[in-house]
Amino acid sequence: xxxxxxxxxxYILVMVVLSLAFVLVxxxxxxxxxxxxxxKVEVTGHKWDGDLEEYNNPLPGWWVVMFYxxxxxxxxxxxxxxxxGVSQGKFGWSSQGQHAKEMAEANKQFGPIYAEFGKTPIxxxxxxxxxEILGKRLFMTYCIQCHGADARGAKGYxxxxxxxxxxxxxxxxxxxxxxNGRVNQMPAFGAILGxxxxxxxxxxxxxxxxxxxxxxxxxxxxxxFKTAQPLACASCHGAxxxxxxxxxxxxxxDKDWLFDVSESTIVETITNGRQNQMPAWKEFLGDxxxxxxxxxxxxxxxxxxx
Length: 306
What we know:
Helices cover 55% and strands 7% of the residues. It is mainly alpha-helical. It folds into 3 domains: 7-80, no CATH class; 96-181 and 280-305, Cytochrome c-like domain (Cytochrome Bc1 Complex, Chain D, domain 2), CATH 1.10.760; 184-278, Cytochrome c-like domain (Cytochrome Bc1 Complex, Chain D, domain 2). The strands form 2 sheets. It has a two-stranded antiparallel sheet with strand order 1-2. The chain starts with 6 loop residues before the first helix and ends with a helix.
């Protein structure tokens, strides 16, 4: 829930008024001094580099006029726009409103293009050069923050260019993932198993994934993996650790790892658990853009298959 309070709008208004009043007082007090024609201007006593002195000249008239103009502009701005904290201003402007207006204009201009692509099946659309360009632009705007510009992901974020997919890599599954998002969770077992048993299970996972492991720990870890109570690892990942990628449960025997395949990282995962979330984009982007994005991602995977 966002933090809101009736105090802050009033606080902003008071600070704005006080700031303008202070600037006005300073300006008025500093423009009272006048120098008559022929009158000698005194120095302030400040010196720099030996002989460089500061004269006590009045402020230039043009500068004073411009400063008054900025104060008048500020008051006018606060009347027209939401700068005071308690009013939206005469124009009723807001960043959300402007964004909605710009989006409506963009959708009016480009909506028919996206709608036309929305009628094309994803496997066919993935081969369309124009669709690929538009899909890449969408990807570079909304997806690279997590998956990277090359779509190869990072620690905790999946690589979209390989052939390993959680939740499935079919056009329908990719569309579903982008549209509705995904939430996946690995429960924490540190408190249940304890440090030594966690390391045993970690070494068994290293063994079945084809990595360097401790034989004694892996032997004990296999028993824990398959039979530990109240919830054995095998109940989710299967007795062989192959998981169920179509349901978001990772295969522990392949080479594809979101959080590294070192003993320390696996121990951390088992001890503290993991929770990942892919946000839903359907409401924000709409069906046609989701369809185009899905085609672009599917195209990345199709190129990898070749």
